[in-house]
Design goal:
This protein has about 140 residues and is mainly β. It has helices at about 60-65, 70-75; strands at about 10-20, 30-40, 50-55, 75-85, 85-100, 105-120, 125-130, 130-140. The radius of gyration is 15 Å and the shape is globular.
């Protein structure tokens, strides 16, 4: 639970999966996970409960493509937000940042009006370490 516009929040459990599917040649698909449990403050949470799934997000900026590489993501702290009220299919804003050891953020993705299938009153947010889950079979090259 997170109270909007305050720094008060209690999080029992938040989880997130990030799947990257490169569109060049036969690059593998990677799945990463972020889990945050029993945290206080405003690092992770939503208003009561939230669930959101985005459509595939096309990434075209070279800096973002570089930041989505396995070597850049693994073990880093991520801060991910999906903003927008939704009870089903709608549009929302997606923010994905990496936080370095000094507390500075590096924007990986900051996209607006992305198709989402969600159940959330406002924003679903998670902050935690990125862990590599699996490398899927080689991509067919279609995106």
């Amino acid at each position: 639970m997170n109270i909007p516009k305050t720094s008060f929040g209690v999080n029992l459990f938040s989880g997130c999966y990030i799947e990257t599917r490169p569109n060049h040649g036969n690059a593998p698909t990677h799945i990463y996970g972020i889990i945050d449990t029993l945290s206080l403050g405003n690092e992770s949470g939503t208003v009561v409960v939230g669930h959101a799934v985005t459509d595939w997000i096309k990434v075209t900026k070279q800096t973002s493509i570089d930041r989505l590489k396995h070597e850049f993501l693994i073990g880093k702290t991520a801060d991910i937000e999906i903003k927008g009220s939704s009870f089903g299919n709608s549009k929302g804003d997606v923010s994905f940042k990496i936080i370095d050891e000094n507390g500075d953020s590096i924007t990986v993705i900051d996209k607006y009006d992305i198709n989402i299938n969600a159940f959330q009153l406002a924003t679903t947010k998670i902050r935690g370490k990125i862990r590599h889950q699996v490398v899927a079979q080689k991509s067919s090259g279609l995106c």
